[in-house]
Amino acid sequence: MTTSTDVEVTPATRELVLDLHRRMVRIRRFEESSGKLVETGEMPGFLHLYVGQEAVAAGVMSVLTDADQITSTHRGHGHAIAKGAEFRPMFAELYAKTTGYCKGRGGSMHIVDTSRGMLGANAIVGGGIPIAIGAAFASQYRDDGTVAVSFFGDGATNIGAFHESVNMAAVWNLPCIFVIENNGYAEFTSQERHMKLTDIAERASSYGIPGVIVDGMDALAVRQVALEAVERAKRGEGPTLIEAKTYRFFDHQGIKGMRIPYRDAAEVEAWKSRDAIRLIETIGVERGLATAEEFAAIWAEVEADIQDGIDFARTSPDPDPADILDDVYTA
Amino acid sequence: MTTRELTYVKAFNEGMHQIMAEDPDVFLIGEDVAGYGGVFHMFDGLLDEFGERRVKDTPIAEQAIIGLGVGAAARGLRPVCDLMFMDFVGVAMDQIFNQAAKMKYMFGGAVSVPLTITTAGGAGMSAAAQHSQSLEAWLAHVPGLKVALPATPHDAKGLIVGAIRDDNPTIVVLQKKMLGVKGPVPEELYSIPFGQATIAREGSDATIVAIARMLPEALKAADALAADGISVEVIDPRTVQPLDTDTIVTSVRKTNRVLIVHEAVQFGGIGAEISAQVQEQAFDYLDAPVARLAAPFAPVPYAPVLENAYVPDAARIEQAVRRLLERG
């Protein structure tokens, strides 16, 4: 097992810092906005928000192309946005409109964008892991140089499909990267109550593959380990298990709920003090790579996009019940 | 079209060879499907012909086998994922019914999943409760899946080809007890589309709808009844999802009596659905209540004497038809 500090770090550039920052701010603002829209009752359903974990999606996705495939989780908005998904069809899907990514059929937990290699969020914990090895199998079968990345949480590493999938990917050297977003909680159950391990990356040794621990609040560090894993996969050396230690600032579901005593306020505040977006802004300014004004401009640009997305969703048509049987099957 | 006699398993195997030769996107994975050719030799010779890239033995990992198929299918390949025994469907169910079946719909049509699952179902081999089940009604209940149960060598070949060419997740349930049964099979590659029943025998006094291995039993019963001047029409739905209700209803409107036979348990079996559709669409034509003959509500037992009592056979089908004719 290695940690991110063992890997030679590629220098952060201005473009990279701004790119990672933009991806993270887009996620942050989408999540805050949609969380509020559900709270006010304007949008249906319920949301598992990604705020706090942005560095993981941003860092990994910054090394992927649209041809590379990902599978995601019930907490999937961040992965979709970091992979390039647009706000208009994302908001429209949450608003259950025909212009949404799933035509209003899927909602928050099923956002998909095949044009960008986003093979879908998944409402079954760990359900996307076996699918990712299939996407990676297709890469290997076609020898097209693409990779697949599966994102999932600490809780998902306890299900059987995780073990089956990582083992099969390992034995077949599939170009698949498994990214554990260890936010310390399987829903409301803390890690020490659901497994004996502190470092889940240790599980990699069961499959004979590298396990890497990375600071999941540091997008540059995440990018670095993702780059290593992708290069390894493309060399035909098989999968890597990455454990990104991170935290969700909001509740398991929705924004509120911090008062529920399954985690204490000091713990939440300690992680919030390591906010990934603030961290990259600090790095950018301190190293002279970008200015505070440039970061502020990104926040403003994203804000305009958010409003545009919401306006689009609000004015989009509802699905027609007459079409309820469409797309059950491919004709 | 040249036709010759082949066993059920050889016909299936020929279909696999021909479709894999035709379509380079078709690959096969499963437990012991490559080196061993499948525990029933359904896949004999495929490794030699198509190589390790397209024919692969997997770890014992049913969820990963099906999930890999789902992901590869979502990327446009045509995986054939073997589950060896139908009972193992339960081990892989999340990937079958939450993932494969629903991706098309819940993603608003963005993704098709041309996945084929092959498996072997049915009792009759003293394989007991975890290697003998007929679970087609489970699968047929899930929107998005298609389910075929070939009952002849001809259909074993045609339905596996039809399944692989279908752009949806399909399950082809081979009948363990029928693997050595011979029948006429065309040499050429052909495909049977899902949702088309066959009338295996024409008749006028009663209709038997026979699922899977109950087809040869029903035909035997029909022969016995014919000796007494009773003319029975025998229908094989071939696929239970989609179900060719029209062929069944048309027959019942003609014969006015129907018996549905399957070796899955009767409660909640596919016979219940067929019965409901018949009474919805042919109630006024019925001269007797719709009859069902199926397994009792128990796991499949091991002892041959119990297993024989469990699975319907020609003699009991014949009795059931006679009872049906006594009504009205």
Description:
Chain A has helices at 14-39, 54-61, 77-82, 87-94, 128-142, 160-171, 191-194, 219-234, 265-272, 276-286, 292-314; strands at residues 2-3, 69-71, 148-153, 176-182, 185-186, 189-190, 211-215, 240-245. Chain A is of the alpha/beta class. Chain A has one domain (2-313): Thiamin diphosphate (ThDP)-binding fold, Pyr/PP domains (Rossmann fold, 3-Layer(aba) Sandwich), CATH 3.40.50.970. In chain A, α5 packs parallel to α6. Chain A is globular. Chain B is of the alpha/beta class and 328 residues long. Chain B has two domains: 3-186, Rossmann fold (3-Layer(aba) Sandwich), CATH 3.40.50; 198-323, Rossmann fold. Chain B is built from twelve helices and 14 strands. In chain B, the strands form three sheets. Chain B has a seven-stranded mixed sheet with strand order 3-2-4-5-7-6-12, with helices on both faces. In chain B, strands 9-11-10-13-14 form a five-stranded mixed sheet, with helices on both faces. In chain B, strands 1-8 form a two-stranded antiparallel ribbon. The termini of chain B are far apart. The chains are: A alpha/beta (331), B alpha/beta (328). The A-B interface holds A 69, 71, 100-106, 110, 112-114, 119-120, 122-124, 127, 129-138, 141, 148, 160-161, 164-165, 167-168, 171-172, 326-331 and B 27, 53, 56, 58-59, 61-77, 79, 94-95, 98-99, 103-112, 114, 143-144, 146, 167-168.
Quickly describe the structure.
The complex is a heterodimer of chains A (331) and B (328). With 331 residues, chain A is of the alpha/beta class. Chain A has helices at 14-39, 54-61, 77-82, 87-94, 128-142, 160-171, 191-194, 219-234, 265-272, 276-286, 292-314; strands at 2-3, 69-71, 148-153, 176-182, 185-186, 189-190, 211-215, 240-245.
